[in-house]
């Protein structure tokens, strides 16, 4: 199994995981502090999906940190297969959540003539949450591709 | 390069491409016959993304059919890399388009108290378009995974 930047147990991999955590946590914080997110199914789904993302990425970041501390490379094929499946599932859920929230944000912000009409000043929080969710998706996407490549090139 | 069901130039691959085309074309047809899709950015984006999907899948279906007719296997690594990138790009765009449209459809159908309030009987067409877009995404997702695996296992 090849060993390159971003595979489990490397510093790049650890940083990717930490960024996923940070972006997802920021997205939850921004969305959960609005007053009316629970009126929108898509926004509630965004929080659920980003919550899953935080748990998953934090768990893998912890594993990476352990592997780095013990200077041991985690390249067990069974474990990597598990990581690949989990990564792909969370990446797909994150993209779907970010897109559906973005659809609604664009609907209110552009299509229905500006933000102040219906949900007021909370718009910027929604937009920030969507932007952070997309950034979280980009980092988990990079991780997923690297993991899949590691598994397939085995 | 391994040769298994779904790789370019096989009957399974051809059928996957044809289903992608059919689902995407059905989604466009269902969405474009509604009266007010152009008021929603996400619905217009769905049509654009499904249009790209139809062109891409039809092109690859044509290539597969040619390869089948000439009994020649297309396993040029450069060509397969190109297919992989194109597949991943269209799959991501399709998922994003389907999710953002689904977000808006759910908003109108559930969150704002039923469909008849704002966009009336056209709701079923929107829902059909979203469902077909998701089915198109599932088939292109299968194709993408197979293609990526083919390339990585080279």
Question: Brief description of this entry?
Answer:
With 154 residues, the first copy, chain A, is mostly helical. Chain A is built from 4 helices and no strands.
**For the CA atoms, what is the radius of gyration of chain A?**
17 Å
Our count of domains of chain A comes out at: 1
Query: What's the oligomerization state?
Result: homodimer
Percent helix of chain A: over 70%
Transmembrane segments (chains A, B): 42-66, 78-109, 129-152
Keywords (chains A, B): Cell membrane, Membrane, Transmembrane, Transmembrane helix
Main location (chains A, B): membrane
Subcellular location (chains A, B): Cell membrane
Fill in the keyword field for this structure.
mainly alpha, 154 residues, homodimer, transmembrane helix (chains A, B)
How would you portray this structure in words?
The radius of gyration of chain A is 17 Å and the shape is elongated. In chain A, 42% of the residues are buried. In chain A, α1 runs antiparallel to α2 and α3 (77-111) packs antiparallel against α4 (123-152). Chain A has 154 residues and is an all-alpha fold. Chain A has helices at 11-32, 41-69, 77-111, 123-152. The first copy, chain A, has four helices and no strands. The longest helix of chain A has 35 residues, at 77-111. Chain A has one domain (11-152). The interface between A and B is medium-sized, with 23 and 23 residues.
